Here is the input.
Amino acid sequence: MRKIIFNLSFVIFLSCTSFSYSANDDIYKKIDLFSEVLEKVNEEYVDEVNQSEIMDSAINGVLQSLDPYSSYMSPEMFENMQTETSGEFGGLGIEVGMEAGVVKVISPIDNSPAYRVGVKAGDYIVKINDVQVQGKSLNEAVELMRGPVNSDIEITVRRPGTKKALIFKITREVIKIQSVKTKLIENVGYIRLTAFNENSSEQIKKKIKEFKKNQKVKNYILDLRNNPGGLLSQAIKISDFFLDDGEIVSTKSRKNYENRKWFAKKGDLINGNTLVVLINYGSASASEIVAGALKDHKRAILVGENTYGKGSVQSIIPMKNKGAIRLTVSKYYLPSGESISEVGVSPDIEVAESNDDFRIDTDTDNQLKFALKLLKG
Here is the structure.
């Protein structure tokens, strides 16, 4: 009976529109097939199913078939996401994405529980506790990783170049994101940016002013390694700090009138002094915009490894059920006209990471040591 009603509703719909059935025949056949599949699952599947959850999975499947970054958020997930973007939340402290149906670590957040146990950018999460992740959506995997603060979780990862799976036991914590860290190293102003949050640009501006008071500071290092990105507005402002003019980034979408370009204003905060930018595979999105813009304008020397290649813009679109969809609406393009998507930004000088746990004051950080040597030379 449900199927009859479903089909009847489409007959009524078609009679009320100017579209011919023949022109959309294939689409309506697919919709009819979808209805039939749901009916068979409900009647024949070995276990009783939650139809609401199945529909959520179907919606999410549609979105994730578009690209790894589009997804559906149930009302509960949407509420959790809004809590997380406030800058303090409970969790493991990793930014994750989807690649070929597998959850992939984009970057661990500095000094987070995941960072401290050794989770690295590029790791593939294959199991969460005893649950296989393969076949699950990104949101489902994220939900499995969430839990009460101080509770333990075990994740199993596959790391490229490592034969055996790695198992990490992690205790969930409240994640407090402090996006800017600075240090004076050998008369070089070192600035580490771990995320692009609402006040990141103001923090950097303040730190540069403090460095400039020290007459010995002439050169700077901007460290964007393991920075998964954040707000586009902050990427533009921070790029502008080091440029006098020229395009910073542009976005292109399906609708031409929504295409935009952003340009630098006059005023280089470090007065043209030499700038080295450190990047690695964990540098993504907003990090790639900054690194790419400074490279294209030959304003900075990029040292490290190729970046992640996350060059698309997602909008959070609320739904009537109080959930939301995260939908890719445009792509970033560097001043050169090149897209970042799936390509990333390449360094001017390639230097591999030397250890799994770099720190500002370490003597074992190849990339940082090379940058300091470059500035001395």
Remarks:
- The chain has three domains: 2-49, 87-175, 178-376.
- Residues 4 and 151 are 49 Å apart (CA to CA).
- The first helix runs from residue 2 to 15.
- DSSP finds ten helices and 19 strands in the chain.
